[in-house]
């Protein structure tokens, strides 16, 4: 029997690109705004998936890199008039360097201890920035609106930010796919299943985990730079918002951890559901209740997430959905 | 996902198709009147951290819409009558939600004008979207100075900016006791309180005061022991600072329990709240700034003295109508919401049109008094739209003749309902 390998990644990227182009085609700014958030969440959820889904390390405070990337980039734009694209890249690199420095000690921890350590790091970073005057301390930093004139006005800047966020999301998904298909990805999954056995078969878990952690920190940093560029204001509370971190985890679980498509489906579904519940008058009062109920159902009955459930229920789909 | 997105797009198109309606009305006194809906959009925090104050603000806005509707709408010079309608969503007190929903309000719901959400952080987020889309927004509930120093052209602030929150308290303190020399500043380390203190500290120093303690504490602090020890060691004559309701209340309570002997204590946000009374004796003599209080007496006479027109209902009428509708007294958040509506109403009447450019010109020129106080916006390009005329009032918890604690307005002198007192 000849095994057909479905062109999963190109198909996925095409679908995402078509969705991303939709608001531009129909000239609908509010749809664009919804999708901006959706692509940001896809980036966050897919990044977390690399460390949580593939490697088995639940990074509760992963939002710390979103905040750091945002702060570094904002600082460069504010004080050195750096172009946004330059600042975003230049901001993401030190954020990943910090991931390397903190990753080495904390990835030695396992299970709940690692999760707790990541929360601690996020909170410590928030407090540190809160007292760090060059970054504006508790007040944060803000642009004068004339900054956007460089990009052809605030409207065009928002459009640019959208484009960049889409590219970042696509890059994250591509990276996630490539890792999953690679030997490196296999070693991560081996660590997830049993770290001691992985060591016996010749994997260097310490090194593999740190590499995965650094990669998974890079994209949230870019997303943070883009988000706060568009926002025009950055503050410690918003930049290091633990709730957003937890939401990204929920999206992963909802869609299916350890799969490429899972975090995308989870992020899209979560964001759509939230938007729908809030703006539907009959349901607006129950939105949190309904969202909680849905999460409960997924955690109790669909533990593999939606994509995982589909793959388990219809094994034939495994060739098509990663 | 494609289906979801298409559905979203369809909802968007549908909403766009069902825009405002126009109903020609019967002509009166020869001039044809045309009734038009005026869609006012904003988000409110029905859930999340800002829930309580945001509800109060929304109630203020609703009361304004009611009053305008009862009065037969906003009448323009060309005979058009504008009937305000509210379009509002829950922002969950989250900034990214605010941005998505304001974009929706502008593009899908095609609102005519915007009012703001509650709290500085959310106002900032909404202001950015409003500015990007060139939509006029009147903000209530955001006092942060930074927001109004971003070079906005379409945002107008009704609240007195944060930088003025404690400067009046310093004036009051020195008027009350000119011998006060040493002051301790202890504040929450968040955006709002930090910007208040950043303005109050140099102001105190310019008045010849010596700042003996200058400490920030983290949001959520419950034990002020270390700070109080530091304050006691420095033996200041006065303490100013605080942050929000929970920490301000706790700080006041612990200052009382540890018998800190400062003669004057002024704290942010917490003192004007009725629940501040829960700490009993510890509340006595504590001073706090407020945008507005039910006892505030801005009247037609006061407006005349100031040389500006008085506009809208009196404070007493507002309070009575509010209590009748919502069965609770209004807070300054409610008054702010109502005042934001009034400001828009006056600008529309002055402009004689809903054209945003004309309304902006009217807002730039505006200088008037309402029950909430005087309203005038900065026209300096750097701080355009910032509130420059509205004054804070200062309340103090004092015992009445019945021995019960209640808030009294003690500053400014022309608005006071009781004489200020030093702590004993």
Fold and architecture overview:
The complex is a heterodimer of chains A (322) and B (424). Chain A has a single domain, classed as ABC transporter involved in vitamin B12 uptake, BtuC, CATH 1.10.3470. The mean pLDDT of chain A is 89. Chain A is globular and about 55 Å long. Chain A has 322 residues and is an all-alpha fold. Chain A has helices at 8-25, 29-54, 63-80, 84-106, 112-130, 154-181, 183-193, 195-200, 205-231, 236-239, 242-255, 261-279, 281-284, 287-301, 305-313; strands at residues 141-142, 233-234. Chain A has 15 helices and two strands. Chain A has a two-stranded antiparallel sheet with strand order 1-2. Chain B has 424 residues and is of the alpha/beta class. Chain B has two domains: 19-160 and 297-383, Response regulator (Rossmann fold); 164-290 and 392-415, Rossmann fold. Chain B is built from twelve helices and 16 strands. Chain B has helices at residues 2-17, 51-70, 95-107, 120-132, 167-176, 191-206, 225-234, 245-257, 300-306, 315-326, 332-351, 356-365, and strands at residues 22-24, 34-44, 74-75, 80-90, 113-115, 137-139, 155-157, 182-188, 210-217, 238-242, 264-268, 286-290, 367-370, 373-376, 393-399, 405-411. In chain B, strand 10, helix 8 and strand 11 (264-268) form a beta-alpha-beta unit. Chain B is globular. The model of chain B is unreliable at 1-30 (pLDDT under 50). At the A-B interface, helix 1, helix 2, helix 6, helix 9 and helix 12 of A face helix 1, helix 3, helix 4 and helix 6 of B.
